[in-house]
């Protein structure tokens, strides 16, 4: 799969389909973590519990699930009114048969099927794939921020690049419906905000973000203005997403 991540090469759809099929093959049962049937629960899973495992989130409702790890695969199925944060996914993130989800995920590949009224903020190697009967899907840029995030993304072998920051913006829609806006919309800038994480996740404050993501500060002639600005943001406790387009981040400022 290494060649498929080369930003200069286009990926043949058949090659991509074959890779996804291989990635979704079931692994060892001991490498699967089930998060199932939660109702009005907040749960945090760390690296020790689920690193490099397949995670299956099934039939949860009115719950908050935070995963601070690079997992191998993740599937979110039959969930309602649930918020899910996943630091990174090495292969495929699948969202299927869900309603009113809020998901933030960095993944090499994302597919969404038969899901309604859900918001997915995404960073990844490929544009999302929408299949089946989706309604009211909002796709937006990745909105996470915490100190281990870049390490988790590197552990998942997801390249850090401007191309991947923009990957949410042009999904591949496999089903045909008369009004594409019923299927999905791109998140409006004024509806975008940083994902609020529990205290276990220590944020990167604006003055330190240039050490993690040079894309934030742009050209050197604007460096001083940016540094003055982020000093003010630090004093107010403002948290800014790391891997999102500057236009979205500036709207929060």
Structure, explained:
This protein is an alpha/beta fold. It has seven helices and twelve strands. Strands 1, 2, 3, 4, 5, 6, 7, 8, 9, 10, 11 and 12 form a twelve-stranded parallel sheet that branches. The longest helix has 14 residues, at 223-236. The radius of gyration is 18 Å and the shape is globular. 35% of the residues are buried.
Descriptive key words:
single chain; 253 residues; alpha/beta; twelve-stranded parallel β-sheet; 7 helices; disordered N terminus
How helix-rich are the residues, as a percent range? 10-25%
User: If helices are DSSP runs of H or I spanning 4 or more residues, what is the number of helices?
Assistant: 7
Output mean pLDDT: 83
Shape: globular
Largest sheet geometry = 12 strands, parallel
Low-confidence stretches: 1-9, 216-224
Structural class: alpha/beta
Q: Would you count the extended β strands for me?
A: 12
How big is the Rg? 18 Å
Give the helices and strands as they follow along the chain.
HEEHEEEEEEEEHHEHEHH
- Percentage beta strand: 25-35%
End-to-end separation: 38 Å
Secondary structure layout:
Elements: H1 13-23, E1 32-36, E2 42-45, H2 47-50, E3 54-58, E4 64-71, E5 73-77, E6 83-96, E7 102-113, E8 116-124, E9 129-131, E10 135-141, H3 149-155, H4 162-165, E11 172-173, H5 180-183, E12 184-186, H6 223-236, H7 246-252
Parallel strand pairs: 1-3, 2-4, 3-5, 4-6, 5-6, 6-7, 7-8, 7-9, 8-10, 9-11, 10-12
């Amino acid at each position: 799969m290494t060649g498929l991540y080369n930003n200069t090469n286009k990926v043949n759809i058949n090659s991509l389909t074959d890779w996804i099929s291989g990635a979704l093959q079931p692994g060892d049962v001991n490498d699967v973590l089930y998060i199932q049937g939660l109702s009005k629960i907040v749960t945090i899973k760390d690296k020790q519990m689920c690193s490099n495992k397949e995670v299956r989130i099934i039939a949860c409702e009115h719950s908050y699930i935070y995963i601070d790890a690079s997992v191998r695969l993740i599937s979110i199925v039959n969930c309602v009114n649930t918020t899910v944060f996943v630091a990174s996914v090495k292969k495929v993130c699948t969202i299927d048969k869900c309603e009113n989800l809020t998901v933030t995920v960095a993944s090499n590949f994302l597919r969404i099927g038969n899901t309604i009224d859900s918001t997915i903020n995404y960073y990844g190697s490929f544009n999302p794939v929408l299949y089946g009967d989706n309604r009211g899907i909002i796709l937006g840029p990745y909105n996470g921020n915490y100190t281990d995030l870049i390490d988790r993304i590197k552990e998942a072998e997801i390249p850090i690049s401007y191309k991947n920051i923009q990957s949410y913006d042009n999904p591949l829609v496999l089903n045909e419906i008369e009004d594409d806006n019923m299927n999905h919309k791109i998140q409006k800038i004024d509806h975008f905000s940083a994902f609020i994480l529990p205290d276990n996740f220590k944020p990167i404050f604006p003055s330190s973000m240039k050490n993690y993501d040079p894309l934030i500060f742009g050209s050197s002639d604007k460096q001083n203005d940016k540094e003055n600005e982020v000093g003010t943001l630090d004093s107010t406790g403002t948290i800014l997403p790391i891997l999102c387009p500057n236009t979205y981040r500036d709207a929060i400022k």
